[in-house]
Amino acid sequence: MNENLFARMQELRDLSGVIGLASWDQETYLPKKAEAGRAAQLGTMQALHHERLVDPRLGDWLADAKPATPDEVAMVRVLTQERSRALKVPAALVKALAEAQSRALSAWREARDEKDFKRFQPHVQKLLELRREMADAWGHDGERYDALLENYEPGMRVKRLSPVLSDLRTKLVPLVQAIDARPPPRRLFEGKTFDTGQQWQFTMHLLEAMGFDLEAGRQDRSTHPFTGGTGLYDVRLTTRVFPHLPLSSVFSTIHEGGHGLYEQGFAPEHERTTLAQAPSMGLHESQSRLWENIVGRSQPFWSYFYSRYQGTFPDQLEGVPLADFLREVNRVERSLIRVEADEVTYNLHIVLRYELELELIRGNLQAADLEAAWNQKTKDLLQLEVPNVNQGVLQDIHWAFGEFGYFPTYALGNLYAASLWKAMNRDIRGLEVSIAQGELAPVKNWLREKVHREGYRLDAEALVTRITGTGLTDDDFISYLKMKYGALYGI
User: What's 275's domain CATH number?
Assistant: First the structure.
C-alpha cells in the first residue's frame, strides 16, 4: 500500500487520539476557567482532522492504492468511507459543531447544578440546527435521522430500527407487568452509607479481575461514566461513586470495563489504522452490556465476588445472604435514571429517547418543548412522574455532545450481547463454573478472539452473524430475560 496513504491514515488516527484525550480531560480534570479555551482547542483540532481527511492528495492516494492483503483492503475501504462522508461537510461546520459541543457541555453541567433546563435549552437548539445541517450535507432519502444513525451504526435506518424497538417494547411491557405483580425484593441498602474510598478500591479489584490492563489504561471519576483515551495502550475509563448507591460504582465500572477491554483488544498490528476501531457503537455497547448485565449480575459471578464485597462492607452487609443480594442486584422496577435501570426496563428508556430524538430531528419537536415532552413520555412508558430535570431531561450527557442517533445503539448492544453470550456458552464448556471460581479470562479471551481483534474488518451485523449464525434479532435477548427473571421472580 502507498506509503503516503499509510502515513496519512496514522496521522488521522493520532489526531483522533489527541482529540479523545482533550475530551477526556474536559470531563475529568479541566479547570473551570479553561472551558472556553478547550472549546476553541477542540474546534481547531476537529477542523485540522477534517482538513487532513478531505485533502485532495488523500483522494489520489486512495484511488491509486494497491492493497496487498485482506487487511489492507479493509483499511482502504473504511478510510474511503470516512473520507466520502467528510467531503460532504464544510470545515466551518465541523469547527462550529466542535465549539458548540464544548459550550453545551459546560451549560449542561451548570443546568444540572441549578436544576434548570432553560440554561441548557438554547444549546440543545443550536446543536439540533447544526446536526440537521450536517445530516443534509451527508445526504439522506428524506429522513435526516438516517444520516445521523450512519455515524454510529453504519447501515441502520429508521425504517428498520423503529420496528425493532417497537417489537422490543411490545415484548417487554407484559414481562415488566408480570414482574410488577410479584413481591419485590427487600431493600438492602436503605439508610446505609458505603465509604466511597472502599467502593473505589473494590471497583479497581473488579477491573483487574476482568483483565483490564492498568498499565495501558486508568480509571477516574466523572459526572457521567464513559470510556475514552488515545489508542490501544491508553484507554481511559471513568465511573461515579455515591455513598448511598453502592451498586452504581460497581456496575458503572464493569460496564466501562467492557468498553475498555474492547479498546485494548484490537490487534496490535492494526494500531494507528482504520481497523483499530469497532464497526459500530451497537457492537461496542454489546461488550459493555454483556459484561455488566449477563456476567456482572449473574449468580456465578457473585457466588465468587460476594464474599469479597461483604468483606469490604462487613457492617452494611452483615447477615445478608447471597440469594437476597442477587435479588437486589437484579431488582426490576420502573425507574427514572437510564444508567441505573435494570436490564428488563432499560430498553424502554431507549425507546423514550429515540422517539424524542426522531421528532427533534424531524423538526416536529422544539428544544423549548423538550422537557415537557420528556416528562409525558416518562409517564406513558414508565408510569412515573419526573420530580426534577436531573432525573429527567438533563440526566444524560449525550445531547450536550450533540450525539443525536447514539441512544439506539444501547438497545442494539443488548440484542447483540445476548446472541454473543449464547454462542460463547456453546463454544466454552463449563463457562459458568469458571466464572463461579472467579476465572473471568475465558470470557475476555473468547471476546478478544471473536470480536476485539477483528476490529473493523467486517460490518457489525456481518461479524455477529459469522460468530453466532444469526444477525440482529431479539429472540436470544427475550429468551435470556424470560429464563433469568422467570427463575428470580417465579413467573
Answer: 1.10.1370.30
